[in-house]
Design goal:
- The chain is an alpha/beta fold and about 400 residues long.
- It has three domains: about 1-195, Rossmann fold (3-Layer(aba) Sandwich); about 220-340, Tubulin/FtsZ, C-terminal domain (60s Ribosomal Protein L30, Chain: A, 2-Layer Sandwich); about 345-380.
- Helix content is about 50%, strand content about 15%.
- It has 13 helices and ten strands.
- A ten-stranded mixed β-sheet has the order 3-2-1-4-5-6-7-10-8-9, with helices on both faces.
- α4 (about 70-75) packs parallel to α6 (about 105-120).
């Protein structure tokens, strides 16, 4: 994982904390890149020798502000520093590269695609990006940056996974607390998705294995992806109604538990796909999908997962819908994670594309007006100077 820019670095930091807290091994290697020294110093879990400051000759460690063109320029100028840090990573131990960046600022939105292009040139592993769209109240320049960066990330990566802040900020919430909460939401969803691709699941055995190849195959073909998530807390065995069902040890109770497990799974799959996606879109017309059910193994069964997978096929119209389980030892919840890849019917993308078109038209108008004014000044100056010669 490469966290580029302020938002990217903070989300990377959150992923590393998630690994430590859950005992996962999602992040095989971490690298934080930024043009602002203070942002790098503020990270808590990224090792200091895995932090790269770029653009020092241009911005002296103070960042590029919201200038993503400058962010791209300094990334190109200092790409050797970034790639040298990458050389220390044993590429044969990773399944893919993931660049994490906020798409509204300057460093990540400009520099992230540059790094992606160079990674794809050197390595055979897939290069993905996790791009965070700014909320609409952050200002026009951030929306414009996101419109530009969005197109560049799609072009330079094997798939762009998107999280739209506009759909997640709560009314009345402060900017800082809002983003901290959003970062946790991002890591919770993508952490379960990427964690399912691990070979070892803490001693738990998966009935329908979802390995890294399933995730890679779902993301194949490029484009844009979104993730849905739904979870439900489960009762401990020794308390509540569940323990009473199991009290007499009859076979009828086992069948009742199986039915409840299946119904819970299918319900969570529907909630995940039709609820709040990381990037809101219509689920029909999706090219590929992946369903991951996470939780203690006894609350997961093949029948429920297969029913959920078939329901996803019907809803998306895709013939490439994969499904499997991610057993978690000692967990107190069951969760459904749905990865929808190759989405097309996305209002937010259309809005960004329109912003980009209008911005380019405005830039052209300003440039034309400037040229006319310059011509006018030159002509006026000549008229005034001619009598002096």
């Amino acid at each position: 994982m490469i966290g580029y820019g302020q938002a990217g670095g903070k989300i990377l930091d959150e992923f590393l904390e998630y690994d430590q807290r859950t005992g996962s091994n999602i992040v095989r290697a971490a690298l934080a890149v930024n043009t602002a020294k203070a942002d790098l110093m503020g990270l808590e879990h990224v090792p200091e020798d895995r932090r790269v400051l770029v653009g020092q000759s241009r911005v002296k460690g103070h960042g590029v502000g919201a200038d993503n063109e400058l962010g791209a320029e300094v990334a190109e100028e200092d790409i050797d520093e970034v790639m040298s840090a990458m050389d220390q990573i044993p590429a044969h131990e990773v399944d893919a590269f993931l660049i994490i960046a906020g798409m509204g600022g300057g460093s990540g939105s400009g520099g992230g695609p540059v790094v992606a292009r160079h990674l794809k040139r050197i390595y055979t592993e897939p290069v993905y990006a996790l791009g965070v769209l700014p909320s609409s109240d952050e200002g026009g320049i951030y929306t414009l940056n996101a419109a530009r960066s969005f197109q560049t990330f799609v072009r330079e990566t094997d798939n762009l996974l998107v999280f739209d802040n506009d759909n997640w900020r709560n009314a009345g919430e402060s900017m800082q607390s809002g983003y901290d909460a959003i970062n946790r939401e991002i890591v919770e969803r993508f952490g379960l998705l990427f964690g399912a691709g691990e070979v070892e699941h803490g001693g738990e055995v998966a009935e329908s294995v979802v390995d890294s190849s399933e995730i890679i195959n779902t993301l194949a073909g490029g484009g844009v992806s979104t993730v849905g998530y739904a979870s439900e807390t489960i009762e401990r065995e020794d308390t509540g109604l569940l323990s009473r069902f199991r009290g007499n040890g009859s076979g009828g109770d086992d069948s009742l538990d199986a039915a409840q497990t299946t119904n819970r799974i299918t319900s969570l799959v529907r909630k995940a796909a039709l609820g709040r996606l990381t990037l809101p879109c219509e689920v029909d017309g999706v090219e590929r999908a992946l369903l991951v059910m996470a939780g203690p193994s006894k609350y997961l069964n093949r029948k429920g997962i297969e029913r959920g997978r078939k329901w996803l096929e019907e809803q998306t119209g895709s013939m490439e819908v994969r499904g499997g389980d991610y057993p978690l030892r000692g967990g107190d919840f069951v969760a459904s994670v749905v990865l929808l890849s190759g989405v097309t019917n996305v209002p937010r993308i259309k809005e960004l594309q329109q912003v980009a078109i209008e911005a380019q038209d405005n830039i052209d108008d300003i440039r034309d007006e400037s040229e006319r004014n310059l011509d006018s000044l030159v002509n006026d100056g000549q008229d005034e100077l001619e009598p002096l010669f």
